[in-house]
């Protein structure tokens, strides 16, 4: 997959028209606060304390333009596609590390890629229809809460 340095420089505006993008401020996710851009339910996030470096991107395949999604995936070096079944995702990304079932019609499978710069990859797969949502994240240190 793409190096962290190259990933960090990706911007949503390079793939979709600026008029479709809304800016995000003080966005809470995974115990951190982010800034970034969104187009529909697709989000590209940067930490507020490192606002120039992309750390997370998510693509909602239902609303993200198919041609743009193909370009993003090619840049990432990630051979997933809309509609892909769990078995194909596991053949590509390795075994699922965790499965979440928040709605009865879908499951989210979480993976960790191998290599010197691993990524957390989250794939939401519909029971009927396959991969519908993809998240790619540079692993971050877990925030610890201060004891008082």
Gross morphology is globular
Spell the H/E element sequence: HEEEEHHEEEE
Which structural class is indicated by helix and strand composition?
Answer: alpha+beta
Alpha-carbon distance between the termini?
42 Å
The quaternary state of the protein chains shown equals single chain
Order of strands, main sheet, comes to 1-2-3-4-8-7-6-5
SS summary, helix count:
3
Helix content: 10-25%
**Largest β sheet strand count, sense and barrel closure:** 8 strands, antiparallel
Low-pLDDT ranges: 144-148
Radius of gyration: 15 Å
- How many extended strands? 8
Q: How many domains make up the coordinates?
A: 1
Binned strand content: 35-45%
Mean pLDDT: 94
Throw out a few tags for this protein.
single chain; 148 residues; alpha+beta; 3 helices; 39% strand; disordered C terminus
Description:
It is a single chain. The chain has 148 residues and is of the alpha+beta class. It has one domain (4-137). It has helices spanning 4-8, 66-76, 86-93; strands at 22-29, 32-39, 42-47, 54-60, 98-103, 106-112, 120-126, 130-137. The chain has an eight-stranded antiparallel β-sheet. Strand 2 and strand 3 (42-47) form a beta hairpin. It is globular, with a radius of gyration of 15 Å.
Question: Could you give a short description of this structure?
Answer:
By secondary structure, the chain is α+β, with helices and mostly antiparallel strands.
């Amino acid at each position: 997959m793409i190096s962290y340095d190259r990933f960090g420089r990706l911007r949503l505006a390079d793939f979709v028209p600026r008029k479709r993008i809304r800016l995000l401020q003080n966005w809470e996710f995974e115990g951190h606060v982010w800034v970034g851009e969104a187009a529909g339910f697709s989000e590209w996030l940067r930490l507020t304390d490192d606002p120039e470096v992309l750390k997370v991107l998510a693509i909602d395949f239902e609303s993200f333009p198919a041609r743009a999604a193909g370009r993003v995936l090619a840049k990432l070096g990630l051979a997933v596609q809309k509609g892909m079944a769990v078995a194909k995702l596991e053949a590509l990304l390795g075994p699922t590390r965790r499965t979440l079932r928040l709605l009865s019609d879908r499951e989210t499978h979480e993976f960790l890629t191998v290599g010197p710069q691993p990524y957390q990859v989250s794939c939401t797969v519909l029971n009927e229809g396959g991969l519908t949502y993809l998240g790619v994240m540079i692993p971050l240190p877990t925030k610890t809460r201060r004891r008082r």
